[in-house]
Design goal:
Layout (H helix, E strand, L loop, with lengths): L6 H14 L11 H39 L5 H10 L6 H10 L1 H11 L1
GO molecular function: rRNA binding; structural constituent of ribosome
Protein name: Large ribosomal subunit protein bL20
Organism: Tenacibaculum jejuense
Length: 114
């Protein structure tokens, strides 16, 4: 009995990997074995960095709130402590946006918690 190989599925599998490697540099974009490793590594980075993105944005928001609060003589921790104590239900994302783009509203919040 002849050996059966499903070349249609094999080719599609290789094409899928090479399509994902589009835009890579050198042999990573057109040599299957190299592209396969590069795509796998890229997917690992993508998975990891979806988690890291959340950390990075929280860190950015904290820096922006801290900068805004220090203009009015408060540290970040003092400001956030007073925000929680006064039951102001604004998260860090919104507070950071106000500190950057709407300083009058941020000042009103600072005055309310002082």
């Amino acid at each position: 009995m002849p050996r059966s190989v499903n070349s249609v599925a094999s080719r599609n599998r290789r094409k899928k990997i090479l399509k994902q490697a589009k835009g890579y540099f050198g042999r990573r974009k057109n040599v299957y074995t190299v592209a396969k490793n590069a795509v796998e590594k890229g997917l690992q980075y993508a998975y990891r960095d979806r988690k890291n993105k959340k950390r990075n944005f929280r860190s950015l928001w904290i820096q922006r709130i801290n900068a805004g609060a220090r203009q009015y003589g408060m540290s970040y921790s003092q400001f956030m402590g007073k925000v929680k104590a006064n039951n102001i239900e604004l998260n860090r994302k919104v507070l950071a946006d106000l500190a950057m783009n709407n300083p009058e509203a941020f000042k009103a919040i600072v005055d309310k918690v002082k």
